[in-house]
Amino acid sequence: MHDALVKTMPGKAMAPSLAESWTVSPDGKTYDFKLRPGLKFHNGDPFTAEDVKFSFQRAKGYKILKEKVREVEVAGPLRVRIHLIEPWPDFLTFYGTMVAGAGWIVPRKYVEQVGDDGFKKRPVGLGPYKFVSHTPGVELVLEAFEGYWRKVPSAKRLVFKSVPEATTRFAMLKRGEIDVAYLLDVPQAQELKRDPSFKVAFSGGIASFYLDYFDMWDPESPWADRRVRLAASHAIDRRALNEAETLGQSRPTGGFVPRNLEFALPLEAHAYDPAKAKQMLAEAGYPQGFDAGDLHPFPPYTSVGEAVAGYLQAVGICTRIRTMERAAFIAEWGAKKLRGLCVCTVGVYGNAASRMSQYVPSTGTYAYGGWPDVDALYEQQAREVDRRKREALLHQIQKTIYERVRFGMIYDYVWPSGVGPRVAEPALLLIDPYPWAAPYEELRLKPGR
User: Fold this and answer.
1) Which residues pair with 81 in a beta bridge?
2) In the chain, which end has fewer C-beta atoms inside a 10 angstrom radius, N or C?
3) pLDDT in tens, 304-330
4) Contact, 443 vs 157, CB < 8 A?
5) Mean pLDDT rounded to a whole number for the chain
6) Domains parsed from the chain with CATH numbers
7) Residue 341 CB: number of other CB atoms within 10 A?
8) How do 180-181 and 317-321 pair as beta strands?
């Protein structure tokens, strides 16, 4: 429904959209956007620089944007200047990619007329599809916007249905009630592969699964020993787990940052070697293994957690699976109340800096500790405007946390989805990595469908 000045598109992390071009001042403190002329919102209101300023001031979420921006200046009907307090090389990463939603533009006049509650009930935007109806928890209906600047969408109507159970999504796809079913379980995907009327497609790649050793910062914990953390990582058979959970399509990795994000340092996953894992545990003083307490699988991925628990058990690391409802888990995780181990996921978009921001520095929401030298490097890279120097700093951070086994990385998650016989182009992984179909205007049905 919405569009932004700059956004991620196929083949380009930051592509011009509502802004046809932009420049950055020599001191790195001012971004000057030239807006695309002649655009109108879904309700017919003209798009102007006032809407950009209003949308930025209205946006919530990442407070760092508000902290770093001094002023949003309307420099003309189709010109906006955003002034920063100090040079911040990640401004466009946060404003012009899918890290946050602050870049989406809403119509000032309409929002002021109907209020926030009215806007929630009937939103208006500049995107390829316009709002028709919404039944919370059931479905959202959108209709193609014929005036979309980039291209008129091929599919004239989109209906998003909320169906929590994978088995139900699969059954609806087989009955022809839906055309694309996200996140199928492997048995369902395998059944679809045997049916020539359907297609199995893959999407994702942005979420990474990893072991987080919550107690490693306690010097009395076994996890304080690097050898123990490395042993746990060597205990995991990533290839078998990948086949069982995602038909082998996920991407085993040793790096916290996916390889196709800016400033990523490619790092190989630790090899599956249970004998080496047992040897390292013995060297660390645990020849019989030890009781590691709770293992928390990130909801709803209980099966991944159970598989990892089995691999750890095989080398002597005993855990107890503790499942939680998603909202409760995230609340306790962020409040740093969890103990033991976590098979966690991270799905932050942008670049290496934004990816690590809440997990690696000791000040991060989901970091239970940190190292002073890594904290210093992270603060230094955030101020570095020279791209090559900044890349070197971010690579150093990634190499350091890899060598110290800060995380037991598993894989970048790519999952199977089902595509029905009416669909010619499901638009999955046109933007890699991105979890869903995108951009929606590229979705196509087969002729006559």
Assistant:
1) 32, 73
2) C
3) 999 999 999 999 999 999 999 999 999
4) no
5) 96
6) 6-106 (3.90.76.10), 205-413 (3.10.105.10)
7) 28
8) unpaired
